[in-house]
Amino acid sequence: MSQPDFPVAVTAMLTARPGSEARAAELIAGIVAATQRHEGMLRYEAQQQLDAPRNFTFIEQWTSGATLDAHLATPELLTFRAAAAEVFEGPADVRLWRLVK
């Protein structure tokens, strides 16, 4: 699939394993901080659900599909993914979006 050359938004929802909420928040804070330096990043933040604190959602916006792909290949994201496998249940629910004008 060819990558779009327009801004791409991402939501990624993850559920921490029971008792792993603090470690999950620590991992997420680290990747959010590291990603602030990635080229093409317009928005990159994470939220923890108030009434279900095992649930986390990333909210991202990238200048293009190519900059998103570059982010996904960075050493810090690969390290995050390896550590996340031990902390989160199952795969993330990742969705790609485009702005409706």
Distance between the termini: 23 Å
CATH-assigned fold name of the domain at 19-88: Alpha-Beta Plaits
Shape, principal axes of CA atoms: globular
DSSP helical segment count: 3
Mean pLDDT: 94
What is the correct CATH architecture of the domain at 19-88? Answer: 2-Layer Sandwich
**pLDDT < 50 runs, ≥5 residues:** none
* Main sheet record: 4 strands, antiparallel
H and E string: EHEEHHE
Strand order of the largest sheet: 2-3-1-4
Helix fraction, binned, reads 25-40%
CATH class of the domain at 19-88: Alpha Beta
Fraction in beta strands: 25-35%
Radius of gyration: 14 Å
Give me the secondary-structure category.
alpha+beta
Number of strands: 4
Task: Summarize the structure in words.
By secondary structure, the protein is an alpha+beta fold. The protein has a domain at 19-88: Alpha-Beta Plaits (2-Layer Sandwich). 36% of the residues lie in helices and 35% in strands. The protein contains three helices and four strands. Strands 2-3-1-4 form a four-stranded antiparallel beta sheet. Helix 1 (21-35) packs antiparallel against helix 3 (75-87). The longest helix is centred in the first third of the chain and has 15 residues, at 21-35. The chain is globular and about 40 Å long. It starts with 7 loop residues before the first strand and ends with a strand. The model has no long low-confidence stretch (mean pLDDT 94). GO terms for molecular function: monooxygenase activity. This is Antibiotic biosynthesis monooxygenase. Keywords: Monooxygenase, Oxidoreductase.
